[in-house]
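hey can u check if this looks right to u? its 279 residues, i copy pasted from the old doc so theres a chance i mangled smth
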Amino acid sequence: MIEQLETRLQEIMDSYKPSKVRDAMQYSLMAGGKRLRPVFFLEVLSSYGVSYEEYLDIACAIEMIHTYSLIHDDLPGMDDDSLRRGKPTCHIKFGEATAILAGDALLNQAMLVILNANIDTELKLKSLQILFDASGVEGMIYGQNLDMESEKKKIDLTKLEEIHYYKTGALISAALEMGATIVDNDNVSTWKEIGMKIGLAFQIQDDILDVTMTSDKLGKNAGSDIANGKATYVKLLGMDASCQEVEKLLKECQSLLSSLTCDNEIYLGIFEQLKKRGN
């Protein structure tokens, strides 16, 4: 699955005219990473016995949106990070202006990738609606805005959860929702809830890893949350309680998953991998 996804992403990049912006897009998009969001989308299909190959372009669009958000999140005007996926961030490698354009281009091309996909027109429109709602001003961008506004301020757990709900959970949830729209439309709300819980668990793990791992192991700058004055679960709850919250959220995901008529062994395996993640 991952190999097919990587191949299709490269084919998409190869179809664009040569330019410095394309080089920057490819640099960030093909720099590795867990491909968590597109894999979640494809695994929903697989868990219902549906062949995912014809939907690879939707998966690619999800990853393009995610990568655009990382490029912009790393910029000096936002988190000002110099390391991403073990490599210099896009603006460090190509300059700030080119990085901005590369992020913009990935955002725009993601829409075209779905529109040009060889799938039903109604499904294209529904996929676009879900993806851009989740990544827009009432989704991921809203979460990023809350995150920036909360820097160097004392916030409570409810506000922190809201930030993570939108900044991280929205796009993960959208990936599951898009898959469910294809194979299990009656249970879309359940898949969305699973996605939000996974997103929150994933972000709490990020908070934990930020203080327990080195930059080399993380592939990004360790301790950046502290440096940027961000509130984290570790700050508010402590390490032990944060780890317990991750376990609780993933158990709730398992319970929701058991209510669905799909091959949940696929996702149970993913949950186990999430528990053990080190970057």
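The CA atoms of residues 42 and 156 lie 36 Å apart.
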